[in-house]
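Email to the structure team, subject: Rrf2 family transcriptional regulator model.

Hi all, the expression group asked for a predicted structure before they design truncation constructs. Nothing fancy, just the tokens so they can compare against earlier work. One-line instruction: predict Rrf2 family transcriptional regulator, return tokens.
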Amino acid sequence: MRLTRFSDIGLRVLIYLERAGERLHPVTVAEIGKQFNIPLNHLVKVVGQLAKLGWVQATRGRNGGLRLAADPATLTIGQVLRKLEGEDDELVDCDGTDCALKMDCQLRGMLRAGMRAFYDAMDRYTLAHATAGNTGEQVVRMHRMFLDGAAAKTAVALPEPVSED
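Reply from the structure team: attached below.
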């Protein structure tokens, strides 16, 4: 099994926002795109879905941006993946194929059991778990580096004083 790029981006967005802390300005889509090298068109779709699910607060406008709206201590990775991957999706499309084993196949049930076990395991971990330790520290460093770079770009150089010799 491999997660879709959509879910991968969704998890990264949530992790990044979880460590945004008490930033004065919300995180922008452009910032996340730059930090993770994600095309903006993909990112906008993911953020829209995260907002629709109530996990991200998205504010439009000049001072707008993104903030985490979910409680990281209770939002499980399993919940996120079920919603972003499609909890009813199966690993094999048995109904959409013309398989001679369709009526007597045991594989479909095995794959369903494996998916349930995967999601059950992911339900043991929360967003807070995903941002603990070194991962969380790295995300905080990413925030600082971005904010320091943005501050440097907006700093206005003052003219040198004119000497009166």
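Helices lie at 5-18, 29-36, 40-52, 77-85, 107-122, 127-130, 133-154. The longest strand covers residues 56-59. Ping us if the truncation boundaries need rechecking.
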